[in-house]
Amino acid sequence: MRILNFKNALFLATIGFIFLLVFYCAKEESIKDIRLVNFQPKPMLATKVTNVQKAKYPAIDVHNHLRRIVDSETDISEYVKIMDECNVKAVVDLDGGYGETLDKHLKVLKEPYPDRFIVYARIDWTKLNEPDFSEYSANQLEEAVKKGAQGLKISKSLGLRIKEANGNYLRIDTPKMDAVWAKCGELGIPVEIHTADPDAFFTPLDGFNERLEELMDHPDWMFNKPEYYSHDELLEQRNNVIAKHKNTIFIGAHMGNYPENLQKVAEWLDKYPNFYVDVDARLSELGRQPYSSRKFIIKYSDRVMFGTDGCDAGPINAEMYRLFWRFLETDDEYFDITKSHHYQARWRVYGLYLPDDVLEKVYYLNAKKLIPGIL
C-alpha cells in the first residue's frame, strides 16, 4: 500500500512539474511575442520635475501653423489667452499663403490682434510652368507685404514635391526663384525655409532606422527612393541660394534641417552670415545631445530662435509651450517631450538650462531683429 501511495505521489509530482514547465515555457514564449508597438517601458529613474508655467522672457514663436485655427473659425481669443498664460508675446503664422487665403489669415488674426500675430505669405506654385512665373511671383509677394505679410514661407515641397513640366523635381536653387529671393531682400522680410526632412527619412526603412515607428505611421514621409534628391543634395541646393542672395535673410527651419549634425550646422552659420535657425519640432534631436546642443546655442545665441511647429501636429495647448520652457530653461533629466510636437520615437531628453542672456535672445531679441513690425 505504501509503495502504491509513493508511486501515486511520484506520478502526481511529475505531472505537476510537467504542467509548471509547460506553463513557464508558454509564458516565456508569450513575452518573446510582445510586439514592438506594445512595448512601452516606464523609466524607473527618480528624476527632478520642474514645472515652468511661463517663459522667463516674452517669447516669439517664429514657427507655427495656424491654418486649422483660421479654417475652423476657432475663437482666436482663446488662443491669445493661452499665449498670455505662457508669456508668448507673438506667434508667426506660416500658413498665410496667397490671394484669398492670405486675406483670410490677415483678417482673422491681425485685424483683432495686430501685435500678437505675424503672417507669412507663400508662393503660388500653380503658375510655375508659365513663362512669367518669376516676375509674377515677385510681384505677388510685394503685394502680399503691402497687405500686411511680414515674411515668406517655403516648405519642403520645393525640392521634394513640386515638379517642372518635364517631370523633374524643381531644384531649390532654380533660377526661376531668383527674383523672389531678391525681392525678399529688397523688402526686408525673412525667408523661413524648410528643406529636406530628418536624415532618417532618406535612409532604408529597416530595423536600423531610428524613426522606424514614425515612418510606419507616415509612409509618405519616406524619401529613400531614386526619384528624390538626397538629403545632402537638397541642403546643398538651399545653401547655394543662401550664398547667392547675401542681402536676404534665410531662417533654416528645424535647426537648419540637420539637428543630427550640429557640427555641419555650425559650419553653415560660420559661412553664411545671412543664415539663422530655429529649434521647432527638433527637441528629440537636441535633447539627446544636451552637452553639444547647449554649447552650440550659447555660441550661436545671436543666430538661434524659438519656435514650436505646434499647431501643425495638433490643437494649440499650454502644455506644448511649457515643455519647451522646461527643455530650454531647466536641467531636468530624461523626460518625455512627445506633446511638444508629436510622437517620433522612444526618446527622452535632457534640459539645456540656458543662461538668461541666451534665453532672451532665443526667445525674443533675435526675432525682433529679423522680422519687421515686431514691437
Structural commentary:
It is built from 15 helices and eight strands. The chain is α/β, with parallel strands linked by helices. The chain has two domains: 2-35; 59-370, Metal-dependent hydrolases (TIM Barrel), CATH 3.20.20.140. The strands form two sheets. Strands 4-5-6-7-8 form a five-stranded parallel beta sheet. Strands 1-2-3 form a three-stranded parallel beta sheet. The longest helix is centred in the N-terminal third of the chain and has 31 residues, at 2-32. The termini are far apart.
Question: Which features does this protein show?
Answer:
44% helix; 375 residues; alpha/beta; 8% strand; globular; five-stranded parallel β-sheet; 15 helices; 2 domains; TIM Barrel
Fraction in helix: 40-55%
Gross CATH architecture of the largest domain:
Alpha-Beta Barrel
* Widest β-sheet, arrangement of strands: 4-5-6-7-8
Main sheet specs: 5 strands, parallel
Residue ranges: pLDDT <50 for 5 or more in a row? none
Say which CATH homologous superfamily of the largest domain is assigned.
Answer: Metal-dependent hydrolases
Query: SS-based structural class?
Result: alpha/beta
Average pLDDT confidence is: 92
The number of E-state strands comes to 8
Distance between the termini: 101 Å
CATH topology of the largest domain: TIM Barrel
The level 1 CATH classification of the largest domain is Alpha Beta
Order of helices and strands: HEHHEHEHEHHEHHEHHEHHEHH
* Total number of domains: 2
- Using the CA coordinates, give the radius of gyration: 26 Å
Shape: globular
Beta content: 5-15%
Number of helices: 15
